[in-house]
Design brief:
alpha/beta; seven-stranded mixed β-sheet; three-stranded antiparallel β-sheet; globular
């Protein structure tokens, strides 16, 4: 969103919509720590941070779900049936489980905050929230990282939550008032759809969280509290059955499977992206057939791969040497670094990994000539055996929460800032171009290397999601604003200046990987209506 709003709207000569990220949710200690730092950096502690997704449910329902959940000893068929019963029970009781006045304990503001931002723009609901009593957190909501903000929040009134002053719809530039667009963005639990989760899918232990999220999206849409949602999950996630089919009453759902490598980014990470438009408030004006939508997206955003994974090895010598010293110190190995060691780690590889890592490298060595690039680029994950979960080659293999990427061409391991760059984060000036280093890179860099690798492995590729976000919003119209200016909907094949097309893609080399804001401009070879034609210059509230 940061890239799109500032760069893309400027390229179009338009004023970017005012956006505010008002709520985050994650149960992990590490993730919650990062989200609280994000609240500080991006909104001066105005944004809420919630814990476990199920904490917002009535206590008796939480208990029922715990009792109904399948056990690890259940057969696949029995576990799948149990999870289906949980989903059915949630849907049958959705109006009670997800009321507009729902609250959840906030780990930033240390009291209950509104779960659904859209409710703050209804007078009766806003009055209810403004009179909320202080509340103690549930036991499982207590986190060891809560001390991150406790000293700041101990001063009442110093940092008010976003909703304390946002229950009145603010005026637009022209004086009119339009309720902000409510957008939910989620990375769904995906372990059950991977080899790590043994492909349990809907029979997995974590399926209940996807059931809660899906039922919640439907119920808040019925209440008019949310306009659009986005989700990302494994490429094996059955979006067609779990969302496109199940959400047909409340949402128009579109789904896409794509990979960064198809868009010119040198990393494998094929994922499923979905978006759902609340039928009460929004209309889809893009292609109605999935194949036509895939083709249009490909035409707009897919690019020929011209880089190898080594383009993302952007750290300077000082950062690399510091990483080497830190890693060897943590390993406490008896093997010593050579005197005057440099950034090429092949000569002291054995000091950086256990014996198993040395043996694994011997398995990768003979594969370089066959699987590597023409110029010698060859990257692999030293935490995985060859072709056992990841595929080595000239681009970065898929990341997981404990990846340890090694480049034969660069002769070294990737370090923290490079894992972020692999996921499309502007973590270094060599990849950020004119956008500048991301605020989130600075937040992530406050964590240790193992934590950054874990976050990167579980993260959403920023640039790919940005393209998907832009594509969906460019084909979305609010029902309150059905008028669309003629120039934005081409009815004839536009004349394309080839020099302009080259100019749009030439920034890839200078930025080390393609600039989404450059390739997403609507000077496409198709008569697409890709522009934010239906979204007035109003506020956009981003949640989760």
């Amino acid at each position: 969103v940061r890239v799109i709003m500032m760069r893309q709207f400027s390229a179009w000569g338009m004023s970017p919509p005012r956006t505010e990220h008002v709520r985050s949710c994650d149960w992990g200690d590490l993730q919650m720590s990062i989200l609280k730092k994000q609240s500080k950096a991006c909104s001066d502690y105005r944004g809420c941070v919630f814990g476990d997704l199920t904490d917002r449910l009535p206590q008796c329902l939480q208990q029922w779900m715990d009792d109904a959940a399948p056990s690890s000893k259940d057969t696949h068929c029995k576990a799948r049936k149990a999870n289906a019963e949980v989903l059915e029970h949630l849907q049958r009781n959705a109006s009670w489980a997800f009321p507009a006045t729902s609250t959840s304990f906030c780990h930033v503001h240390k009291h209950s905050c509104p779960t659904y931002p859209g409710a703050m723009y209804t007078d009766s609901h806003a009055a209810f929230f403004l009179e909320l009593p202080d509340e103690q957190p549930p036991k499982r909501a207590c986190r060891r990282h809560d001390s991150d903000v406790s000293s700041v929040m101990s001063q009442p009134g110093l940092h008010e939550p976003w909703w304390a002053t946002r229950h009145v719809v603010p005026p637009m530039d022209d004086g009119s008032r339009v309720r902000p667009l409510m957008i939910n963005i989620a990375g769904l639990t995906c372990v059950e759809y991977t080899a790590l989760g043994k492909q349990k899918r809907e029979a997995g232990h974590h399926d209940r969280y996807n059931s809660v999220w899906c039922t919640e999206r439907q119920q808040v849409a019925r209440q008019g509290l949310e306009d659009v949602y986005f989700s990302e999950c494994s490429d094996r996630y059955p979006a067609e059955s779990l969302q496109v089919g199940n959400f047909s009453e409340t949402h128009y759902v579109v789904a896409l499977r794509t990979c960064p490598s198809e868009m010119g980014f040198p990393i494998r990470r094929r994922r499923t992206y979905t978006a759902g438009l609340n039928k009460q408030t929004c209309v889809w004006v893009g292609p109605s057939e999935p194949d036509d939508m895939d083709l249009e997206f490909q035409t707009l955003f897919h690019r020929t791969m011209e880089l190898t994974g080594d383009a993302l090895f952007v750290a300077d010598d000082k950062q690399i040497l510091s990483w080497v010293l830190d890693r060897t110190a943590k390993r406490k190995s008896q093997s010593r670094l050579p005197d005057n060691f440099g950034t090429k780690m092949d000569t002291y590889f054995h000091t950086l990994v256990p014996q198993g890592g040395v043996q694994r490298k011997s398995l990768y060595d003979p594969l370089r000539n066959h699987d590597g690039g023409l110029a010698g680029a060859f990257l692999c994950d030293m935490e995985q055996n060859p072709h056992m979960g990841t595929v080595p080659g000239p681009i970065v293999p898929p990341l997981n929460s404990h990846s340890d990427i090694y480049s034969y061409e660069s002769q070294r391991f990737a370090i923290s800032c490079e894992y972020l760059a692999m996921q499309g984060v502007d973590s270094n000036s060599k990849v950020s171009g004119g956008r500048g280093v991301s605020t989130f890179a600075r937040i992530f860099n406050t964590s240790g290397e193992a934590d950054v690798r874990r976050l990167a492995g579980n993260g959403i590729h920023v640039a790919v999601f940005a393209a998907w976000f832009l594509y969906v919003m460019g084909n979305t119209v609010r029902r309150e604003t059905m008028s669309i200016e003629a120039p934005l909907l081409a009815t004839e094949e536009p004349t394309v200046d080839m020099d302009d097309e080259l100019a749009n893609t030439s920034s890839a080399a200078s930025a080390a990987f393609p600039d989404v804001s450059g390739v997403a401009t609507p000077s496409s070879t198709t008569p697409s209506s890709l522009a934010v034609v239906g979204i007035p210059a109003c506020e956009v509230l981003l949640v989760d």
